[in-house]
Request: fold
Amino acid sequence: MEGSGILQLLAELAIGVLGFSGVVAVLGRRSAGDWSPVDRSRFLWMIWATALVLASSLIPFLLHHSEIGGRPLWGWCSAIAATAWTLVPAAGIWLRSITFPNPSTPGVSKLAAAYVWPAMAAAPLLFALNALAIGFDRTFAAYLGALLLAFGSPIILFIRLLYSAMEAPRAA
Reply:
């Protein structure tokens, strides 16, 4: 299957981010429940997005073993990813377990928000365009591009969480 090594690497990186998120949760007295609303929101978005990257990296392997290959494989993978990247965050917002931090809130990096939220909106759109063969031709490259764009969000959220955890003890 085209790009299997890259997808496997992305899955491994996503597992790494999920693992290190436990370290971030323990830093800065977060294990005791001392979460700021901004950090709680960052953490939950990071977990959701990383889990979606992991699932999106593994979907092609499942479909490939179902004897789907070539352009139909990337069309189906893109359609599934577009649906997941749209419905899962929408469900989280609907359930009110996660909220979008307001960029004007103190402690929210405007630079990080300028990437994270547009990327989280653009990734499902790119997956959908690839699935529908609009502007893209159901290719691995388009699928990978959307996946990498989406994976940037949890990485930035992880860095911001780590930064705020390292910053908190100095302020106390």
User: Anything to note?
Assistant: The chain has a mean pLDDT of 82. The helical segments are 4-26, 37-64, 70-94, 110-131, 140-171. Residues 140-171 form the longest helix (32 residues).
